[in-house]
């Protein structure tokens, strides 16, 4: 039954995605900073929430919101860089990482799965492709780098992705999230972070700064403890100023 739906879901997702051309998204440099000492360096990678749909700057999107939320919990500075593409999937993630030097980050936040949920990527393929990607992150990042894998956001909470097909994608996202949580528990330095929609928000309203603050709060609550522990141990990647090329 799922295989019969795949062409229909893929066509629906492509048609709906094409209609997002009018939705605002950041055009500034994909980075944000919260001032402070002994700053944590964070990479946000992937699609969906990493893109910043609905706002005009990365300071209002996930990078800025996360920098402020995490700094408020740790008392340290936070430097966040984003590397993203609306089309990134578990299969394309390794190529889309673009040979980024991961050894200089204290934390890597991964947001993948929305595209895979929309096109009904099989759980078997999801496990294979995402596991390979997460293992690559663990292997090529610093020994103290923490990886935080975001769950797929509720598909029906995204404007335009409701209706019967949205319900199907939402159910598949829940299955992918369950598989992801199991994978993360089996990997070192890797934590699954469920992602919820902001309560009481109409499904036909696109993202605002409040949505990114909501997600950043969820992330910061999970990230602060492991990052504090690494600071206490003195296990940090070699210091390096954020910069370099950024791929949208």
UniProtKB/TrEMBL annotation:
Q: Which residues form a coiled coil?
A: none
- Annotated SGNH hydrolase-type esterase domain ranges read 51-206
Write down the superkingdom of origin: Bacteria
- Would the keyword Ribosomal protein be found if you checked this record's keyword annotation? no
Which UniProt keywords are listed?
Answer: Hydrolase
Q: Name one Pfam family in it.
A: Lipase_GDSL_2
Q: Tell me, what is one Gene Ontology molecular-function annotation carried by this entry?
A: hydrolase activity
Quote the protein name from its UniProt record. GDSL-like Lipase/Acylhydrolase family protein
This protein's species is Cryobacterium psychrotolerans
Organismal lineage: Bacteria, Bacillati, Actinomycetota, Actinomycetes, Micrococcales
């Amino acid at each position: 039954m799922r295989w019969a739906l795949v062409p229909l879901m893929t066509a629906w997702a492509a048609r709906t995605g094409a209609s997002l051309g009018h939705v605002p998204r950041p055009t500034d440099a994909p980075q944000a900073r919260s001032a402070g000492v002994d700053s944590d360096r964070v990479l946000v990678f992937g699609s969906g929430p990493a893109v910043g749909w609905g706002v005009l700057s990365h300071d209002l999107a996930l990078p800025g919101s996360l920098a402020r939320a995490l700094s408020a919990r740790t008392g340290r500075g936070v430097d966040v860089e984003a590397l993203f593409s609306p089309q990134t999937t578990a299969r394309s993630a390794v190529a889309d990482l673009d040979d980024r030097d991961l050894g200089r980050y204290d934390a890597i936040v991964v947001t993948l799965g929305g595209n895979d949920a929309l096109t009904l990527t099989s759980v078997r393929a999801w496990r294979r492709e995402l596991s390979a990607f997460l293992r690559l992150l663990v292997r090529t990042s610093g020994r103290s780098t923490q990886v935080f894998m975001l769950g797929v956001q509720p598909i029906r909470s995204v404007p335009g992705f409701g209706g019967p097909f949205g319900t199907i994608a939402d159910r598949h996202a829940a299955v992918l999230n369950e598989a992801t949580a199991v994978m993360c528990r089996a990997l070192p330095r890797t934590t699954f972070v469920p992602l919820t929609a902001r309560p009481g928000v109409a499904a036909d309203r696109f993202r605002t700064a409040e949505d990114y603050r909501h997600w950043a709060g969820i992330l910061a609550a999970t990230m602060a403890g492991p990052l504090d522990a690494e600071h206490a141990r003195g296990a940090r990647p070699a210091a390096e100023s954020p910069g370099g090329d950024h791929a949208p």
